[in-house]
Write a structure and sequence with these properties.
With 160 residues, the chain is an alpha/beta fold. The chain has helices spanning 22-34, 62-90, 103-113, 128-133, 137-144, and strands at 13-17, 41-48, 93-100, 118-123, 148-153. It has a five-stranded parallel β-sheet, sandwiched between helices. Helix 2 (62-90) links the parallel strand 2 (41-48) and strand 3.
Length: 160
């Protein structure tokens, strides 16, 4: 196998899933390190989960849920603005994406719709019980995304 020189490598599209964790930033920086900054493009996605997935039950106040959804979306937009600044600092071609709903589904859908070559995600080290009950976003995408997936493990000193 002969490795391709950078000038011979095809243009790549990277998708990085981010949240407010240190490990998401590590995944972002890892993706940047793999990029050919003159050719490649990075898509940064953050998902504003529906409050219904967080607060459930017959006594959930609808006005409270609407207010919570707006707050979650605002925080997600602010996070994407932060990553837009980081992309500008790195001088890379980028697009920030705000999705709503399930992170697992939103990320896998964007992989297909944007014809992504590599999905880069952080793995925050969910415990076995959490993985059984709610599942892992990185594990789901590893098995279901229609592209190569790079899962970046958390640093041991960042583990809770």
């Amino acid at each position: 196998v002969v490795p391709l020189l950078t000038s011979q490598r095809p243009k790549m599209k990277y998708l990085v899933g981010v949240d407010s964790s240190k490990n998401a930033e590590k995944a972002f920086l890892t993706a940047i390190s793999y990029m050919n900054k003159e050719e490649d493009e990075i898509f940064v996605i953050s998902v504003a989960e529906d409050s219904g997935a967080i607060v459930m039950g017959p006594y959930a106040d609808v006005s409270f849920l609407i207010s919570l959804d707006k707050k979650i979306e605002e925080q997600t937009r602010n996070l994407l603005k932060l990553y837009a600044r980081k992309c500008k600092e790195q001088n890379v071609k980028y697009t920030c994406l705000l999705a709503k709903g399930s992170p697992k589904d939103a990320i896998c859908n964007e992989v297909v719709s944007r014809d992504i070559d590599v999905l880069v995600m952080g793995r925050r080290g969910a415990g076995w019980m959490e993985r059984i009950v709610i599942g892992s976003n990185s594990e789901h995408c590893l098995h279901n995304a229609k592209c190569s997936v790079l899962v970046v493990k958390e640093d041991p000193e960042d583990a809770e």
